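P.,

For your records, the input lines for the assembly:
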Amino acid sequence: MADILQINKVSKNYSRHNALNEVSIHVAEKSIFGLLGPNGAGKTSLIRIINQITGPDSGEVLYKGEKLGPQHIERIGYLPEERGLYKKMSVVDQVLYLAQLKGLTKADAKKRMLYWFEKFEMQDWWKKKIEELSKGMQQKVQFIVTIIHNPELIILDEPFSGFDPINTQLIKDEILELKKNGATVIFSTHNMSSVEELCDSIALINKSHKILDGTVKNIRNTYRSNTFKVSFKGSIIGFTNALWTGAEILIKQTEDDIHTLTIKLLNNYSSNQLLEAVLPNHQIISLNEIIPSMNDIFIMKVNQGNESEVLQDNETK
Amino acid sequence: MKKIRLIIGREIKSKLRNKTFLIMTVLAPLLITGFLAFIIQLSQSDNTNQQVMVIDDSKLFKDKLTGNDYISLSYSNLKLEDAVEQFTDKGYSCLLWISPNIIQGGSGATKLYFRKSPGFAFQTFIKDQMEKIIYENKLKSNNIDPNIISNSKQVVKLILEKVDDKGKPEEQSSFGTFGFLTGALMFMFILMYGMMVFRSVMEEKTNRIVEVIISSVKPFQLMLGKILGVAILGLIQFLIMGIITFILTTVLSTIFLKDISGQLKVFKQQQELVKLQGSNANFSQLEKFDDKLEVFDLLEKIEKINFFEVFICFILYFLGGYLFYSSIMAAIGSAVDSESDSQQFITPITLPLMIGYLISMKTILEPDSSLVFWASIIPFTSPIVMMSRITNGVPLWELFFSLTALFASFFVTTWLAAKIYRTGILMYGKKTSWKEIGKWLFYK
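Structure tokens returned:
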């Protein structure tokens, strides 16, 4: 699939602080892309560059192959991490104003606003001022403002913060539907389970460098370590003997008469061979491969980065 | 352009919905004209009827101290103690008692008893007459003819005439007080609207909507839209205030100033007559107006003011001065996170305005000093100082020079402010310093 966004070797410096260092990311059209990284990694700086709020010091950003420019602004929808609306302005005025700033005519803005208000069941409180609304309601208004102009590219910075589980689900469904309707969604989040649930591919940024990217499936496969969790009934000594040198036992757990072992298969020993060896004398209850979660990968990669930096620091000292 | 229009529209709408703003717009002219009317009313004699019982123990004033259309005096031989008890029952509004030793002076020599407070004008009326009677009495007792004294008195009236370099008279109305008033108004408005821009910028920054907006429009467009929006709002407010003030003053002046402007007309006719007749003239007609000369002077000065010129200049200087300062205010508003941090930035910005205000006070005393001249050219102070000079008659080239400088420097400040604004609105959590702001000027 073609890329909607190509970020090539983008760097950005603030007076004494390096926010992005030659970061390159490609975002495929009609996909959901996760921009991950710990706080202060440079995600917001990158998002602001895509939104043309700031410009890169070096490198380039291409939107559908063209150099990113003012003509693309109206095709992008942006939900910043720090939400904000005019407190004293009514919901209607606010949505119409911001939609018109994105290039909609007043009539169009009104039509689409009605559609979304109905969808989110907000008709009752659209005359209210923002300051009279609950936080969750404000978030809904903000979400509508982000997508009212039918953007091709939607950038959501921490879209789920401040929502209760029901509204979180609502927004998740909405993101999937937007994708189905042909939009591309980039979202940054710390919520790794939502990444696994929604994202097609991700990029991980740490300390202004991109340290990992690819599709979620590929990344998780790359970080598979041939580790399995097996539960069975029977003698634990007999089980370990049967494994012989084919596997290394990492964790042992026993509950009632059920033993659960976490084992790492060594060499080319396969899970089938393992089963063959233990089947005759043990009752197998379950066998699962442990695929690392995005959460594990995130923590591992970020810690690795930090450790290697500590090492480098020590060497230079 | 369409987006700037949207921003301007929102800015105006949001302020127009603000009740305090609307109340201010209507109330301010009411207060100003009301206050003026109150002062004028105060200086006019109050026309309530006064029946005064007089107990003259000095026997000096009988038939000399008299009333007028509203004040009637009647002398009584009652004892003071009885009179104090009885004067209200007998239908008098107050009781004047004059001690036998009034001629020796001292406090407590006369007393005015009353139930309802007699007006100030009434008190002056009585006091002035009594002083005059005592004065003539003392002259007589020293064998001096009062006529000699009054004939040796000569009123000197200083006539000011401004001339151009060829010695030809130049029209001018040197009415410093009025100039000071327009200068002070200019100071107030520039500060008020400048602060409005400042607040509006800071509001958008602190409630974080600014990031949503500048993902749709350029920061410069947002800043410009805001500044222009408040400017248009200011002009609308002027217009409303101006119309209300005009209506009110017209109504009030027909009510309160009808007598006095009629008298002024008679006075002027008499003056012309006296001029024609020369030394043979009968001055008694003019002397009747002696106590009104100050009011006449004021009215004549007001009549001489070219209100149209003042109005046009006021609008031009307001626009220039406001644009000049508001762009700086916008930059400062973008740099701070909270109102409490803002003081260290606001004070140095308002300082030149303050100085302008102080110089405009000097304009009353020395309208042609070089300090005043330069302060009315330099953009930081020119709107205020020039407005305080305007009623003295300012040559056209000076106006042109000063306005050009003002508007040119508006472009410079806006350009610089845009650079600061662009960076400032996205800076959170840091305490900003002047040094920091200086750096933002050089960001790419």
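Two observations worth noting. Residues 219-256 of chain B form the longest helix (38 residues). The mean pLDDT of chain B is 81.

Regards
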